[in-house]
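Sample entry (205 residues):
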Amino acid sequence: MEKLKSNLPNMAIVLTSVAVLCGGLLAFVNNITQAPRDAAAEKTLTTGIEQVIGGKCTVENKYEITRSINGKDHNFIVYETDKGTAVQSTDPNAFGGNLTVLVGFNDNGEILGYTILETAETPGLGAKADTWFQKAENGGKGGKACIVGLNPQHTNLTVSNDGGDIDAITASTITSRAFLRAIQQAYNTYMDQGTDANTGASKIK
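Predicted structure, serialized as tokens:
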């Protein structure tokens, strides 16, 4: 077999062939691993919902709500279960960027629990949001830092430095503010209220 001459057209043919082959392999690998990744993501979400609701539950309805907050659209995902409602909420202004929480509410609007789904905060400081606002018996700070059991309708969910009712994470006031904003907006979405928001919901299959 005659060896290809080393010129620009032949090099382009070889590079294109390699790119097509690699692209095909990546697509094949992605296709065969998609199902396991989807299953893992679904399991993580199910675990998160049960954690914030407080036990085994069945998701009966799921939908997305887009709310305009201070002139910007924010998306929230609502999971209605047989034991309460979980709301996924993101604040984009944490110290490290997006901070996404999943928070559970009972029929009275009280916070049943929460978990952090996404954060890029500093390890040891802002990352403490995952536990700081929990009950002391659950590894949290407890006291005025704990939001579990509170009803945002009757509690000022801002840090005490800003005149609110919640103690901020030590040396992480920016993260604490973002976290509490995400919780408050989750509550506003759950209650379908908030003077600064217009809402629209679409069901997710």
